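Same chain as my last thread, 359 residues:
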Amino acid sequence: MLPFLDDFYGNPSSIHSIGRKVRAFLDDSRERVADVWKCKASEVVFTSGATESINLAICGTARVLKPYGRHIITSAVEHHAVLRSVEYLVNNEGFEKTILPVDVDGRVDPLDLENAIQDNTILVSIMAANNETGTIQPIAELGAVCHRLRVCFHTDAVQWFGKEPFDNIHQFNADLVSICGHKFYGPKGSGALFIRSPLLPDPILFGGSHENERRAGTENMAAVAGFVLALESFVSSPVFDRCLLEPLTKRLSSLCSLSGVNLVCPLAKRLANTCSMTVPGIDSVTLLASLDLNGICASAGSACSAGSLNPSHVLSSLGMSSNEANSLVRFSVGRETTEDEIEQVLALFPATLDQIRRD
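reply #2:
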């Protein structure tokens, strides 16, 4: 990334020598992503991250397909980037929505999707893996339903990349796939959207003809450089190695033997790096603050909703009460997590709960 913050700081749209060198790297970067994804370079659009990729996929596609219908389908457990994009289209642009339910583990039934598709359905958006529970969706099956019924399919695969086996971008059976660099050790503020040719979503940013006129704005070459290297290094051979991480999250799951602690999703149905649980009667904010004082960094729901006092909409969709949904704690492990750190959590967690309950 450093050369594009120093020696090659030029604008890739400029015609001077430095700009042309940066343009050549941008074109090469797109080809490198296409090599990993096994798609056309023209189907790769660089973005500022997951939120922009998702907004472009949903709003841009819905608008360009509006002459064919106004019905959009998504699920109750999506990230707010999806839910609020759909909500905006419904409230402001005359679209309709269907929100699919999920089972107790947070999975969408492909039959429910098939039954929900109408003659005027133009877009379905369902995530590949959940950001709060780690639940893995039957995404290829859901995509196959959409293709059979000739409905455009988008998947938010942000949590999935770098954690599950990857062969090619087409394995999702999706027309649009959103990904984000910092979820697999790339730089924050980097991302991309796969757009299956010949689909051309309407742009949501205006002012220039960048990214084949699909995303206006001077490309952040340092972020692109970091994103591409992380993608090449950490996706085809997932950096979140299930063989290494599953034993760690399995050990964390043993916390559910404590009184009042409940596991959210069984290990067999979730990402290997994620372990979520609830502690009814103790709100997430209090629990996370207490853990942090002991040097344990955990989360409650989506980091994008940090500070929210509302119960997790994901857990509420699983049928949990507000009391339980408001007590979510999520542990995420990665390539640097050690067994000793896991043992520290197991040793400190019971005492932390006891202290909160006494207070």
